[in-house]
Structure formats: C-alpha cells, structure tokens
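> call design_seq(struct)
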C-alpha cells in the first residue's frame, strides 16, 4: 500500500515479527564503542512534521527500522516526497537498498523530505497502513482529523488490537469525525472531513503519543487548543514544531497551540536512540567483565529515566561529550561491570523509562535483593503485553518474578538457559538477548526477527561487542542483512555465575542525577 522501499511495516508483517531464531550464549567479555540507530521518536517526527511543512528538509542519522519506514510510507501516500541520499550522492525513492552495492542497509540514513505544506496534503488513493507503529497511527490520526478529505488508517494484527480510543475520544471533542471498530477505539479508523475547534483537554495518562496527536490536530483547529497532562512525557513534538515556527507553548504540564499560517521545513540531526542504547548499558552493568560506550545518544531529560534508575541501583553511567544538536541534548554514555541492588521504581519516573522496563527487568533479575516496578500498566497495551511477556519468559529462565496489574516484583539471582519467545515484540527480543549474556546456559529466542522494528543491526552489534555469543548460526537469519561473524562454541566461555547486581526503596530518580 505504501511506497516501495519506504512504507508499510518494512516488509516484516505479523508473521515476520514472530519469525527467526537466535541462540545466545554467555561470553567472557563485552567491550566496544558503538552507535545505535537514530532516535525512533525523533525520526518519526522529523519525517512527519517536515512532510506538512513548506520546503525541503535534510534528516541526518534517521533510524530506518520498520516503524519509521511506516511513517515515511504514510507521508508519501499523503503527497510528500521522501528520498534517501546515499554515500555515492545518489538520491533514491528506495530507502533501504543501496543503489551501488545492492545491499539492504538502514544504518546512518540521510533522508530528504519535500514537504506538501500544512494545507497541501492530498487524499490517499488507498488505505494507509501504519504497520506495527503506534506512533505512526496515533500522531497521524491527529493530522488526518483536520484534513478536507476522507482517509482510512489501519495497521498489522498487533496494532489493530492496541487502544486508539484515548486518541479518538478527545479528537471527537474537537469536532473530528472518526469511526472505527469497537466504538471507534480500535483500528481500522475511517476519518471524514470536519472542522476542528480548539478546546481544553485533560488527558488521562502522561503519553507523548496522545499529547502529540492533539497538538497536531490543534495545528488545524480554530482557536486555541490546550492539552493538560497528569505528568511529564517526551517533549520532542513541542521542541520540533516550535523550531518550525508553530505557535506551541509549554506551561508546566500544559501545552498551548494555535493554528499557524504554515510550518517551515527544518534540517534535523537525529541523535542515537536512548531506548536502543539502554540494552548495551544494562548488558555492561550486569556482565562481570564489560565496558561499553554508546556514542551520540539523545539525552533529552524526558527520556533519561533508564540512566537514573540504573544509577539508583548502584551503577555508574559516565556521561561525556555533552552538547546540543538540533535543539536536543546529546552525549556519549559509558557503562561497565558493577554490583547493583534491588530498588522500588514507580511514580513520575515511569513515563521517562516506559520503553526500557523490559531490559530494566533483566537487570533486576541478577541484582542483589528485590526490585519492584509499579505504575507501568501502560506496558500492557504495547506491541505485546510487556508485563506478561517479561514475567513469563524470565520465569522460564528460572527468575523469581511476580506479575501485578501495573508492574512486576523481581527477586535477583541467576538467569538460567532455556527457550523463550519475543511475542513479536522488538524490545522483548532484545531484553532477553541481554539476559542471555549472563545466563548459565544457552538461551534460544524465538521471534528474533522482531528487532527489525527498531534496531535492524542489533544482532550484528551484539556479535561485535560479545564475540562468540551467537550460537546456532544455521538457524533462520533474523536481520536480513550481512551475517555477523560468530566464534561459535569453540570461542565461547559459558559463565556459571553472573555478577550479582547490588532493596532499598526509592520512588523516583533525583532531578539532577547521573551527571547530566
């Protein structure tokens, strides 16, 4: 449905996300200096917001996992042009395949976005498929609600089961005409033309996706739209739209927006995604002989809860080379082997680390003491029920874990070998792989292909910082690209006992923690 090489769900599909298999073994050392894919949240917005702006923007360092390809494909269907500039200088509509080498590569992408203008989008010729991307679906619903044409928005099987009512209900208050399954709470959604009016909306959860959808609708509404959140959430939307000339103002937990005459296209340098960096930070912390540096990571304070949580657990995360790039704070992060302790994690810190909870649970699984994670019910409606998935698969690896409606209680100890599955969820696949690096036996991960959604090069990077950790190289390849070289069993040291991580009960991270 979307443009070739740049749309849909990146070619993964429901079956693809559950496919592939990897066997991961513990190794004697983890080390390296690396970069991670461009921040997924910022890439989505850089493509989407420049697509409704006037002019041409260059987006450097864009992350091109399946989710961001879905956004690119959707904006193409609405009349924007999205192309990739390759190292050779050639520009192509195919965002994935190098025109010189023919290799499917999504590292360090440079995109050119030719905007259609705030009022220049066109009616799509087909249903818009958001793939597996909740960000694409929810933010785009805000834009589509203000258009003078009809559109239909859908997604893959997983996304069609995720809640949209939290977006469609307030859009309806603004005057939007949205119809869909289950009382307009589930995709597909049919959106008809309707005038929007600015209102004051108190949203029920601290959600950047919900807040952003309403801000975008406010760009097309008469009068002032005010969104009041119950807590802090990611502010990438406010930062970027303000830089484009939008009348967007933040006052505490409220955001005010008025319709601008237009938006100007702006170049964006996308920093590395801290949600992807989190896997390597935790891997280094829990491994007995590790030192890993992740360079050029976005450290927006609304996103750094994982650093604060690990610091509370006893880790030392060194923050160096701090700078500001394109209005976003960026730094290099270094983590090394340490002893962590169990803590209580809940309250205001949760929105700042919501995507990192699965890998944080892995850290808790080998910590000294008990860790409780609460106020995280939002994880039940992600790509999978992440609380259930984490509890089920850590328990399968011998971890003492109790599941709560809004969280987990994990008693630290050892992680055993065994067979687990990603549940089609990229973050579950990668979190389990990190845990396998200190397991007492091999861990087989089904559904390894799910990493393609956000981190296509994950398995290659894992093999580089932990040579020999990937076993069963004859298994179905999940990365679809160059195969990493693995040392195989002959170069593998299986650790009998992982380093214990050092419960104090701490509610929230201090505002100025972790040396930022």
């Amino acid at each position: 449905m979307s443009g070739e090489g740049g749309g849909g769900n990146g070619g993964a599909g429901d079956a693809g996300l559950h496919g592939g298999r990897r066997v991961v073994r513990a190794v004697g050392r983890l080390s390296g200096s690396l970069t991670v894919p461009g921040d997924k949240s910022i890439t989505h917005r850089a493509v989407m917001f420049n697509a409704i702006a006037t002019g041409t923007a260059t987006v450097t360092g864009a992350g091109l996992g399946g989710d961001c390809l879905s956004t690119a494909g959707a904006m193409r269907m609405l009349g924007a042009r999205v192309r990739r500039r390759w190292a050779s200088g050639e520009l192509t509509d195919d965002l994935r395949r190098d025109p010189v080498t023919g290799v499917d590569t999504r590292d360090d992408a440079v995109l050119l976005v030719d905007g259609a203008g705030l009022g220049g989008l066109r009616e799509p010729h087909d249903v818009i498929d958001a793939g597996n991307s909740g960000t694409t679906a929810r933010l785009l619903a805000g834009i589509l609600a203000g258009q003078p044409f009809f559109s239909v928005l859908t997604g893959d099987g997983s996304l069609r089961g995720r809640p949209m009512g939290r977006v469609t209900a307030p859009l309806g208050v603004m005057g939007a005409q949205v119809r869909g399954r289950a009382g307009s709470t589930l995709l597909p959604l049919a959106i008809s033309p309707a005038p929007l009016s600015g209102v004051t909306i108190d949203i029920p959860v601290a959600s950047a996706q919900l807040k952003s959808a309403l801000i975008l609708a406010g760009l097309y509404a008469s009068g002032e739209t005010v969104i009041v959140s119950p807590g802090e959430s990611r502010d990438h939307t406010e930062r970027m739209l303000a830089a484009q000339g939008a009348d967007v103002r933040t006052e505490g937990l409220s955001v005010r927006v008025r319709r601008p005459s237009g938006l100007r296209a702006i170049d964006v340098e996308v920093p590395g995604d801290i949600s992807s960096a989190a896997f390597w930070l935790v891997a280094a912390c829990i491994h007995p002989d590790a030192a890993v540096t992740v360079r050029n990571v976005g450290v927006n304070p609304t996103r750094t809860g994982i650093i604060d949580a690990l610091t509370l657990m006893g880790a030392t995360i060194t923050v160096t080379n701090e700078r500001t790039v394109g209005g976003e704070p960026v730094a290099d992060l270094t983590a090394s082997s340490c002893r962590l302790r169990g803590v209580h994690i809940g309250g205001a810190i949760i929105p700042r680390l919501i995507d990192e909870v699965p890998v944080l649970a892995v850290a808790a699984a080998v910590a000294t003491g008990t860790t409780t994670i609460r106020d995280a019910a939002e994880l039940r409606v992600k790509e999978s029920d992440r609380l259930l998935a984490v509890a089920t698969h850590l328990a399968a690896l011998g971890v003492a874990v109790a599941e709560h409606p809004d969280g987990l209680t994990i008693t630290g100890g050892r992680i055993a070998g065994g067979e687990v599955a990603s549940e089609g969820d990229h973050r579950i696949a990668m979190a389990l792989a990190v845990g396998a690096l200190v397991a007492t036996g091999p861990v087989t991960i089904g559904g390894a292909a799910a990493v393609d959604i956000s981190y296509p090069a994950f398995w290659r990077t894992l093999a580089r910082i932990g040579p020999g950790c990937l076993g069963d190289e004859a298994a179905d390849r999940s990365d679809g690209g160059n195969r990493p070289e693995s040392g195989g069993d002959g170069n593998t040291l299986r650790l009998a006992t992982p380093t214990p991580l050092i419960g104090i009960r701490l509610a929230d991270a201090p505002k100025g923690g972790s040396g930022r």
